[in-house]
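Severity: low
Component: inverse-folding endpoint
Summary: output formatting inconsistent between runs
Steps to reproduce: submit the following structure tokens with default settings.
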């Protein structure tokens, strides 16, 4: 009976513990989200778990973790923009009412069963770094109340970790840009110095 009726059962606290352990081991965004997607996907027994993170410079979404080609970028963008006006943080495709049949169709086309908005606040400003995208359950079952409650907790924890990782990425990128500018300025200075020596001679 457990195998048949409780095939999707799992320990919520164990999931949260495993995720927390993973979050403190790295600051690298790719590594952080790849590990998190694997933990969430394996525990909830989903066909796929992927993060769609907003790029700081572009309006595109970076797909990290899971099978990144599972969700089409264009359809995910379309679904994401269509859910902006909804107050709910977690949108379950199967629970969308008849008045949202068009949106449900978009979810189905994008192979998204659940979309979790990652929202947080930094210095009073609402930050929205991206989404967690979940495919259907491997068993064909529906997402339970336990799943939704766990995803709410996970989303709050992940927002902080993602924001820290994105800031770290920005600092790294700034350092690379600064180093490139210093190297370019040094090269120009050497060239000017060589010219001055030639003129002096």
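Observed output (run 2 of 3):
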């Amino acid at each position: 009976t457990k195998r048949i009726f409780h095939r999707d059962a799992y320990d919520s606290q164990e999931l949260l513990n495993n995720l927390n352990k993973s979050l403190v081991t790295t600051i690298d965004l790719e590594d952080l989200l790849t590990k998190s997607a694997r933990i969430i996907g394996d525990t909830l027994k989903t066909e796929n778990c992927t993060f769609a993170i907003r790029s700081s410079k572009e309006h595109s979404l970076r797909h990290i973790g899971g099978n990144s080609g599972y969700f089409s970028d264009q359809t995910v963008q379309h679904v994401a923009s269509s859910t902006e006006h909804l107050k709910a943080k977690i949108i379950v495709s199967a629970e969308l009412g008849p008045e949202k049949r068009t949106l449900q169709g978009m979810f189905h086309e994008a192979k998204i069963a659940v979309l979790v908005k990652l929202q947080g606040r930094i210095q009073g400003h609402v930050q929205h770094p991206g989404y967690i995208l979940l495919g259907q359950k491997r068993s064909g079952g529906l997402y339970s109340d336990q799943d939704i409650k766990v995803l709410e907790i996970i989303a709050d924890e992940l927002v902080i970790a993602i924001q820290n990782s994105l800031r770290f990425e920005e600092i790294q990128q700034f350092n690379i840009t600064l180093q490139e500018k210093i190297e370019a300025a040094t090269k120009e200075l050497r060239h000017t110095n060589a010219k001055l020596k030639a003129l002096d001679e």
